[in-house]
Each structure stands twice: as structure tokens, then as C-alpha cells.
Automatic annotation (TrEMBL):
Coiled-coil spans in chain: none
GO cellular component terms, semicolon-separated: cytosol
E.C. no: 5.3.1.9
Name of the molecule in the record: Glucose-6-phosphate isomerase
Catalytic activity: alpha-D-glucose 6-phosphate = beta-D-fructose 6-phosphate
Stored SUPFAM superfamilies: SIS domain
Family in the record: Belongs to the GPI family.
Keywords assigned: Gluconeogenesis, Glycolysis, Isomerase, Membrane, Transmembrane, Transmembrane helix
InterPro entries documented for this protein: G6P_Isomerase (IPR001672), Phosphoglucose_isomerase_CS (IPR018189), SIS_dom_sf (IPR046348), SIS_PGI_2 (IPR035482)
Sequence intervals crossing the membrane: 378-395
UniProt keyword annotation of Transmembrane helix present: yes
Superkingdom assignment: Bacteria
Pathway(s) where this gene product acts: Carbohydrate degradation; glycolysis; D-glyceraldehyde 3-phosphate and glycerone phosphate from D-glucose: step 2/4
Length: 421
């Protein structure tokens, strides 16, 4: 099986071998600490051992319920915000399956217009929902769940309960709602934070409803876990990624851009943004994560990236195995693109990626490339685990807690007060 690999561009003046080796020697003990499920973070490391929440029994229960829903649903509404829906949305949008229900999203905004249009889109369709909230205090998913629950009760009466799943912590008010009303309950583990929840009920149940092979995804994550546990720091892909970005931060590169030429990565990049921003953005530290959705964004921000202020470094995502093909056919119309005749659009897109990587690298932008052998469930599981582990290491290198997010609560306190809670 081919591996996901990471490589650097030619900006050796910024990341020379001596600097990387010195940094690695100084921080290699962090890799051992992270793999050991260190005591200081034990209440946040439920994702580290994948079998704890994604073992065979858990996967069977998830898949069985998902199959029931798939057999009847036209639409499945995923209610959640931030870490409660980002991983599932990333996989669902990147790996669309045939004969799957339409997946819609709620609980990620407070727009009346959005909710009215969503309700209209449900008319005449068989609807199921899943409300995800760890403590069920966040207003966005709470309001959306109430509106959609009432909608289902109005349409289906006593049958509404069978169409409602909730994912929360045992003992929470959401758990009590499920007990009192007969809703299906999935567990949001207390020892997993939202942004690390891809590989438990939180992420896996919606993925399974969408037809994604969650067993294959989990297997990929397990094999990445095994790989990271045996690779020494200087070869370890997660450690190397964390080390490169911390070294660049020390040189005043304050923004990291995830760049990709495959639109299917867009919501994965949104998950990645949350992972980095919420894990590292504290104590006046952290690299600000941004996205280059190429080639479209090359025609907007491309000029700044190429010749603007030197504060950005890039991480390119590059899939090697062709999974789609479109040959540019010739015709008798003079459009001046005859030089493309016979070319595969897949190859043209690959050339655009490499040309951009080379131009940015030669123009002075530190560039990394993450090479992914294939865009499927197995490698998606690998990417989820690799980035979660890398962010854990990167936070340790930065000397911040990669699992808390106290700053997020400030706006909530203001909002609760204004609303009279």
C-alpha cells in the first residue's frame, strides 16, 4: 500500500537541513510523550486509540442504524456547528456515493432565511435528522434542533421520534431528551473534543448515512496510527509537518495556506482550518490557517501570494491516482485552444498544480507538498489521523494546550446575556 508523503520545495535557505535536524533533536521527546497518552491531556485523548470509540461493535451499531435510515430517507439533516459537523462534511463532500440520501446542514448559522429555505427544501421528502452537541448549550445547533424537531413532529406525529437521532454526552440535557422521547442516542465521548471527533459516533454516523465505507476509513486511520508509532521523529510524517510549520513560524511566517486543485478538498480544508486555529490560536501564538482553492483563487489572491508581503507558507495537497478523465476534443471552431486537443483535463489540472508549486516556491514562498496516493475512504482516514496527531505535536512544540478553546466561550457569554439566559 502506498503511503501519504510530505516533501519540501527548494527554499533551503529558510529550512536548511541543519536547522531541521537541530529542531528534531530538541523536540523528539514530544513524539514519545504524545504516543504514550500523557497524563496531562488524558481527558482529551480519546481519539488517540481508535478502537476506544471506533471498534467493531461501535462500527456495527453505527452501520446498522445508518442502513435503516438510508433505506427510507430522501434527506438527512446534520445539525451541528464547528467540530460537530466539519469532519463528516469534509468526507461526505469529497466522497459522494450513489443512492445516498441528500445531506443538508443546519445548526451552523442563525440565519432565518437559511432555515426557511432549508424547511422548504424538505417538503414532500422523507426526512431524518441528527443533532450533534457535546453539552447542548451552544445556541446554533440548539435552535436548529428545536425548529427541525417541531417540523418533524408536525409532519409525522408520534412517528417523528424514529426519525430523530441525537449525539451528545451521557447525562447531558440532550441525553435526557433522547431518553424521554425515544430518540436514537449516539455518544459524543467526554474525552474527545469536537474538532478531534472524526473517528467516533460524531463523525462516523453521518458519514455512514451518506454511504461512506466507515470501516475502510477507520482502517486507514488505524494504519496511520501504527505508522506514526514506529517512524522515528526524523521520518515521522506528522512530526515533520509539525516541525516545518513551527520552524517557519519562528521566521515570522504567520499564515499557512492549504492549497489544492481538487474542489473536493474544500470542506476538508475547512476542517483543517478549525483544527489549527482552535488548537493553536492562544497565548498570543499560532499560525493563521487560510485556504487556496485553486485554480480559481489564483485569479484573485494569486498575485499577492506570488509577490506580496512574505508572511505566507503553503501546504499543497496532491492526489496521484487518476479517478476521473475528460479528453479535450478537437473541432472546427477557431478558439485558439487547439494546443490542448487530446489532452486529459486530469493532466492539465496536475500541470497547473505543479506549475503553481514551482512558481510560488521559486518566488520565495516556503512550500510543502502532501502527496496522497488516492482520494478514497482509506486515505481520508489516514489524513484525519495524521493531521490530528500533527496538531497535537505542533501545539506541544508551540507550548500551548492543543485541546482547549477558552476564547470561543467569550462571544457565547455575551450572547447568552443579551438573550436573557
Amino acid at each position: 500500500m502506498k503511503k501519504i508523503e510530505i516533501s519540501l520545495g527548494d527554499q533551503s535557505k529558510l529550512l536548511n537541513l541543519d536547522a531541521i535536524e537541530n529542531f528534531t533533536q530538541k523536540h523528539t521527546h514530544y513524539l514519545d510523550e504524545a504516543l504514550s497518552k500523557e497524563k496531562i491531556y488524558e481527558n482529551s485523548l480519546g481519539w488517540l486509540d481508535i478502537d476506544e470509540w471506533a471498534g467493531e461493535v461501535a462500527l456495527k451499531r453505527i452501520q446498522d442504524k445508518a442502513n435503516e435510515v438510508r433505506n427510507d430517507a430522501d434527506v438527512f439533516v446534520l445539525i451541528g456547528v464547528g467540530g460537530s459537523n466539519q469532519a463528516a462534511r469534509a468526507a461526505i463532500s469529497a466522497l459522494p456515493q450513489e443512492n445516498a440520501p441528500e445531506i443538508l446542514y443546519a445548526g451552523n448559522n442563525l440565519s432565518a432565511d437559511y432555515m426557511n429555505k432549508l424547511l422548504k427544501a424538505l417538503e414532500g421528502k422523507s426526512v431524518y435528522i441528527d443533532a450533534i452537541a457535546k453539552n447542548f448549550e451552544t445556541i446554533e445547533p440548539g435552535v436548529s434542533f428545536r425548529v427541525l424537531r417541531q417540523y418533524l413532529e408536525k409532519r409525522y406525529g408520534s412517528g417523528a421520534a424514529g426519525r430523530i437521532a441525537v449525539t451528545g454526552t451521557k447525562g447531558s440535557s440532550l441525553y435526557q431528551l433522547a431518553l424521554d422521547n425515544g430518540y436514537t442516542f449516539f455518544t459524543f465521548p467526554e474525552n474527545i473534543g469536537g474538532r478531534y471527533s472524526a473517528l467516533c459516533d460524531v463523525g462516523l454516523y453521518p458519514m455512514a448515512v451518506a454511504g461512506i465505507d466507515i470501516a475502510k476509513l477507520v482502517q486507514g486511520a488505524k494504519e496511520m496510527r501504527e505508522r506514526l508509532s514506529v517512524e522515528p521523529a526524523e521520518e515521522n510524517i506528522a512530526f515533520r509537518y509539525a516541525a516545518y510549520r513551527n520552524l517557519l513560524q519562528q521566521k515570522d511566517y504567520r499564515l499557512e495556506m492549504m492549497s489544492f486543485f481538487e474542489p473536493r478538498f474544500y470542506y476538508f480544508s475547512r476542517w483543517w482550518i478549525q483544527m489549527l486555529a482552535e488548537s493553536e490560536g492562544k497565548d498570543g501564538k499560532g499560525v493563521y490557517p487560510v485556504v487556496g482553492n485553486f485554480s480559481e483563487d489564483l485569479h484573485s489572491i494569486g498575485q499577492f501570494v506570488q509577490e506580496g508581503r512574505r508572511m505566507i507558507f503553503e501546504t499543497f495537497l496532491d492526489v496521484t491516482e487518476r479517478d476521473s478523465s475528460l479528453i479535450i476534443a478537437g473541432d472546427d471552431k477557431k478558439d485558439y485552444f487547439d494546443y490542448l486537443e487530446g489532452n486529459d483535463l486530469w493532466n492539465i489540472n496536475k500541470i497547473a498544480l505543479q506549475s503553481t508549486f514551482d512558481a510560488h516556491d521559486k518566488g520565495g514562498i516556503p512550500c510543502m507538498k502532501l502527496t496522497i496516493p488516492k482520494l478514497d475512504e482509506y486515505y481520508f482516514g489516514q489524513m484525519f489521523y495524521m493531521f490530528m496527531f500533527a496538531v497535537y505535536l505542533s501545539g506541544k512544540m508551540l507550548k500551548v494546550n492543543p485541546f482547549d478553546q477558552g476564547g470561543v466561550e467569550d462571544y457565547k457569554k455575551n450572547m447568552f446575556k443579551a438573550l436573557g439566559k
